[in-house]
């Protein structure tokens, strides 16, 4: 995808999709995310697949942070159905939202599909300190994951520089 190298960053990938849990659908979005991040030198320290329910997702955010992840990628559950709980759950664990990044991701997606505007995905930071992790919600499609990471990865060093300047 890119020649961008980001060694020293640890990540978790959480797929939130009942169809993947049941085996009806392959976790292609997660596979794409892991591949892109590994190519960039990011170490994936946790990868899980869960049902689209808020309580398990909150627990997975906690486990990702405990595993040392500074980047948490969610895959799926960003649409408008009643089961699409990822944006609200993400905002509940973030100290600050980064709406400009989320909007840029949708703009990138529009280059490939008019459906990109239906995503309610958010981007946020769990803490404004050196312990803060960036959470980005991605659609379940491989293309949506590529769009999101194309926007996000070049910004990560700058985001972490800001967070790491703050006293914990």
List the helices and strands and how they pair.
Elements: E1 10-16, H1 18-21, H2 28-39, E2 43-50, H3 54-66, E3 71-75, H4 86-93, E4 96-97, H5 99-110, E5 123-125, E6 134-138, H6 142-152, H7 156-165
Parallel strand pairs: 1-2, 1-3, 3-6
Antiparallel strand pairs: 4-5, 5-6
Helix pairs in contact: 2-6, 3-4, 5-6
Short description:
With 168 residues, this protein is of the alpha/beta class.
Features:
168 residues, alpha/beta, 6-stranded mixed β-sheet
Please characterize this protein's 3D structure.
The chain is α/β, with parallel strands linked by helices. It has seven helices and six strands. It has helices at 18-21, 28-39, 54-66, 86-93, 99-110, 142-152, 156-165; strands at residues 10-16, 43-50, 71-75, 96-97, 123-125, 134-138. Strands 2-1-3-6-5-4 form a six-stranded mixed sheet, sandwiched between helices. A hairpin with an 8-residue loop joins β5 (123-125) and β6 (134-138). α3 packs across α4 (86-93) and α5 packs across α6 (142-152). The longest helix is centred in the middle third of the chain and has 13 residues, at 54-66. The chain is globular, with a radius of gyration of 14 Å. The model has no long low-confidence stretch (mean pLDDT 94).
């Amino acid at each position: 995808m890119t020649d961008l190298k980001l060694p020293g960053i640890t990540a978790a990938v959480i797929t939130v999709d009942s169809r993947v849990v049941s085996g009806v659908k392959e976790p292609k979005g997660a596979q794409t995310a892991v591949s892109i991040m590994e190519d960039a030198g990011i170490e994936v320290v946790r990868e899980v697949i869960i049902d689209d329910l808020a309580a398990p997702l909150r627990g997975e955010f906690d486990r990702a942070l405990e595993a040392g992840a500074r980047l948490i990628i969610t895959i799926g559950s960003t649409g408008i159905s009643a089961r699409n709980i990822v944006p609200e759950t993400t905002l509940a664990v973030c100290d600050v939202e980064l709406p400009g990044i989320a909007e840029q991701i949708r703009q990138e997606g529009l280059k490939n599909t008019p459906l990109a505007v239906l995503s309610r995905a958010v981007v946020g930071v769990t803490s404004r300190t050196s312990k803060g992790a960036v959470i980005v919600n991605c659609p379940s499609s491989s293309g949506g994951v590529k769009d999101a990471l194309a926007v996000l990865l070049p910004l990560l060093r700058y985001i972490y520089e800001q967070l790491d300047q703050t006293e914990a």
